[in-house]
Amino acid sequence: MAARPRFTSRATVLVLVLCSLVAILAYPARQYIAQRGEIADQRAKAEHARRQVDELRRERARWQDPEYVKAQARERLHYALPGETPFVSVAPPPPPGAKTPSADGATGRPKALKPWYATLWDSVDAADAAAPAPQPVP
């Protein structure tokens, strides 16, 4: 009895058809999955924008109230109504010879003694006045 081939022509055709179907459907399936992800991202962005719009509407409604506007003017701009005496508290100057703290206690950052632009300009002047590095002897 003759040995039967391992793969018949029908099996080979079937394998080729299945491989071609996988190759044909791979790209659309990948696109479908990618588009589903983009749709989910867009929905999340839309929900975030909707929440922002709601918050801004509530804030606009608060600003329509004259009492809220007065309270904000008093707090932010230090306004006072006629007949009131506004007070501004100022920290007293340190006594002579007292050591000034070099860092802010809350943040741990050094307090600025001069504005930032003055410090920047001083560093530019210091770099300009620096002596050039000595040339190495050959």
What does this structure look like?
With 138 residues, this protein is mainly alpha-helical. Helix content is 59%, strand content 0%. It contains three helices and no strands. The mean pLDDT is 84.
Which H/E pattern describes the elements?
Answer: HHH
Q: Any idea what the shape is?
A: flat
Radius of gyration (Å): 38 Å
Quickly give the structural class.
mainly alpha
Approximately how much helix is present in the residues? Answer: 55-70%
How many helices does DSSP assign?
A: 3
Q: DSSP strand (E) fraction?
A: under 5%
Terminal-residue CA separation: 95 Å
Q: Major β-sheet, in short?
A: none
Poorly predicted segments: none
Average pLDDT figure: 84
Would you report the number of β strands? 0
Keywords:
mainly alpha, 3 helices, 0% strand
Secondary structure layout:
Layout: H1 9-63, H2 66-77, H3 116-129
Provide a short characterization of the protein structure.
With 138 residues, the protein is an all-alpha fold. The chain is 59% helix and 0% strand.
